[in-house]
Amino acid sequence: xxxxxxxxxxxxxxxxxxxxxxxxxxxxxxxxxxxxxxxxxxxxxxxxxxxxxxxxxxxxxxxxxxxxxxxxxxxxxxxxxxxxxxxxxxxxxxxxxxxxxxxxxxxxxxxxxxxxxxxxxxxxxxxxxxxxxxxxxxxxxxxxxxxxxxxxxxxxxxxxxxxxxxxxxxxxxxxxxxxxxxxxxxxxxxxxxxxxxxxxxxxxxxxxxxxxxxxxxxxxxxxxxxxxxxxxxxxxxxxxxxxxxxxxxxxxxxxxxxxxxxxxxxxxxxxxxxxxxxxxxxxxxxxxxxxxxxx
Length: 295
Prior knowledge:
Elements: E1 3-6, H1 14-27, E2 33-36, H2 43-51, E3 55-57, H3 59-63, E4 69-72, H4 79-87, E5 91-94, H5 98-114, E6 119-123, H6 129-136, E7 143-145, E8 160-164, H7 170-186, H8 191-194, E9 195-197, H9 203-217, E10 221-225, H10 231-243, E11 247-250, E12 266-271, H11 277-294
Parallel strand pairs: 1-12, 2-3, 2-4, 4-5, 6-7, 6-8, 8-9, 10-11, 10-12
C-alpha cells in the first residue's frame, strides 16, 4: 500500500487564517458582506466563501459602493482605499495581516522622515495586492523592483532603504541586496552607508520553504496544492520541484492524475500559505482512495 503523508506546516498562515475567520464571523450576521478583491489567492476557498454569501468586488465597484460592510483582506490596502471608505460610509472589516500592517507603517514612517533624500525600494511582484498597499504608503514614489533586472531604476549616487513583499523568497531578496551593494561599491560608495536593509519577509513563510524542501526529499512524489494566482504558491512549488522533479502542481482534486503514482511507495502532499488545510486533506484522501482501488 502506498503511503500518503501531509506536510504538517502546510495550510493557511496566521494572517490568512485570521482574515477567513473574521469573514466567516461577519457572514453569520446575515448582512451583505463584500470582499475587496479575492479574500485569498485560492479559487476553491473563494468559491466556498461565495456559497456562504461573500460577494467579491473590484476596486472600481468599491468606488461606487455606499453604506455597506467590506472586508479588507490580509494583503492590505493603500491609504486611498480608506479615504474612499470614509467618503462612501463603508464599514471596513479590517483583516489586514498584522505583519503587513506593521510593514506598511514602517514604509510610511520611513518615507515621511527621509523625504526626497532617500530612495524607497520595494522588492515584490508587480500588481500584487500587498505591493500596491506598500507603494501607496509613499504616494507612489517608491521604486518597485521585481528582480535584479530592475536595479537600473536605482540612482546609485543617492542612499536607499529597501523593503520586501512578505511572501518573497529570502534567497532572491538576499541576491538582490548583494547586487545593489556591488553597484554602490562600483560607484565608489560604501554599501553599508548607502543601503539600509529591512528584513520584512514573513518568518512563517520563510521558514516553510526549508521545511517543504526537506519534506520533498523524503517522498517519491510530491503533490503541491495551491491557487494558480498565489505568489507564495509559485515560490514554494519551485522550492519543492527544485529538490524533487516528481512534483506536481494542482489546485483541486479534479486535477489529480493517477498515472503519477505508478510504482510509487510514498507521496507527500503540501501547499501554499493561501491553501486551506481542509483542501490539502481532501487531496490526500483522494490519492489514498485511488491507491486502494488498485488493489
